[in-house]
Predict the structure.
Amino acid sequence: MHYYLIKRFGFLVLTIIAASALAYFMLHAVPGETAENVARHTIVGIEDDVSELVKAEISSKYNLNDPIWVQYTNWLSGLIFHGDLGSSYVYKDTSVMTLISLALGPTIILAIASMLIVIVVGIPLGMYCAVHENRPSDLIVRGATILSISFPSFWLALMLILVFSLTLDLLPVAGYGTPANIVLPAVALALHPTAVVIRIVRTSMLETLGQQYITFAIAKGLSFGHILWNHAIKNALIPVLTLLGVYFGNLLAGTVIIENIFAWPGIGNLLISSVDARDIPVVTSCIVVIVAMFLIVNFVVDLSYHFIDPRIRYE
Amino acid sequence: MTLLSVKDLNVCFPTGEGIVHASRDVSFSMESGEVLGLVGETGSGKSVIGQAIIRLLPTNANITGTIAFNGQELTTLKDDAMHALRGRVISLVPQNPSGSLDPLVRNGMQIGEIFIERGMTKNTAWDKACDLLVAVGLIPSDRIAKEYPHELSGGMRQRLTTSIAIAEKSCLIIADEPTKGLDYHARETTARVLSDIKTRDNVSLLLITHDLYLAEHLCDWIAVLYAGEIVEIGPAGQIFNTPRHPYTQALIRAMPKNGLVPLDGQSPSLMAIPKGCCFADRCSCHSEICSKEHPDLIQESLNGGVRCHHPSCN
């Protein structure tokens, strides 16, 4: 177990370094000059050409004239030896750590809210459909899942705003701060994964209910409720757990479009505006944080199997 | 007294390619305390009969005939009443013990949950479960109870499912292929456990098996099945010493101790049952009548019967 943990941690560190390097070098490969983009996003009134003087000033301030690998190594050694992600080119030299910690809170809140909807709605409805296989209620729910899988989430988000904000005037259109603000983005984000989870839970549950240990449980004279709670649900949820982990990781990675639509100040929004401005330390750091969260969530899921399924033991 | 009386039991499964006649006109009865063996090769419809009795056949199964248990008709019994019989009065030792144990539940709880459902506390149920593990020779029981099914060997899993079947004092235990896939040693142990169950009062055992060795050791009565129908039925001694149906004779010749003489050919498809005798194609003494007329099961005496135009021909 200790060996396994160490191995996984080492893998996590290597993945983060690889991802940050990839992000760093790819940003430099994009056409256009970093100093020029930074200038356009920091100095008010620059419309046409950015003067060479301004560019040189910015370049020398942030060591942009150094070879890329030197810049990257400087940034990486700052992260490894000082836990420092550097400072932003754009936001008046604010430390990247501050920017990310400001954006991470809203993203985590939104991810948790969406995930709660996915779990609370998706799992029970999937179970319900499995138990009522091919009855009208099952067909209706399955039809609804097909619809919500088929429509893109940004379109659904706009429809939600149209209905619940503009027509019914129940919820705010966009923004951040009050509990009412979170409802629409959370629902918009949850619709697609909920529909998938319903379908997967249903399939997994039907497969489990066909297992011999369920038949034998009936032969033992156990009640249907007992069989459902003590045997079927536990076994059926094992494959669903992986899926939930992937979805949660995706939500934590920030959801660029939905955050944009609802003006949600999350990491997706920060990332997209920083890419626009060539704010390289911020972009690279966002990617590092996103990759780390994704890996940690999946690691926790893998670890949870150890406690749920006695057949799985990590050595 | 008669505990179980099966009469003209027919089970068929409609499939895309046709109707599978898994069991045809099966009739037999069991006295309490008796052991009846249903023997036959794979696909002869043995397990279907057991599942029909405890009503665990898939929902697409088409069942006709009567199954009277203690004078109660099981085929038309309400689901609630049938549920009350399962595990308490009629128990099952399932085929494939590995698949029949929930992989996420501790061995002790696989038994104990039965007692918890009956209102016992978790501790009492656990203790009773450990006692049952001891009864089937799973020792040390407290350690095995805490383990999971995947930590047991095939033979141990078989004994675990057997202990579940004897958790309550059932009148009838249906043991479905209890020695399937077990090595010689595990088979011996299972045979011993089943024979212990047999010696307990008023427990009748319906032993479904293709293991003739096991059947010979345990059974009072034997019914030989071929292509879904009983071809010979009688007291175990008579079946093994003076078999009359050519198929029974061939089965006994195929036992290792009798020289392991294989039987040529294959049993007919259960979707296309021949008009005459089902065994005619493989029979060494078949005549014209065999392929034309389906033989009836002739009850010659109280000692059973045989479904053959030329009984005792070999």
User: Anything to note?
Assistant: Chain A has a mean pLDDT of 87. The CA atoms of residues 97 and 228 of chain A lie 48 Å apart.
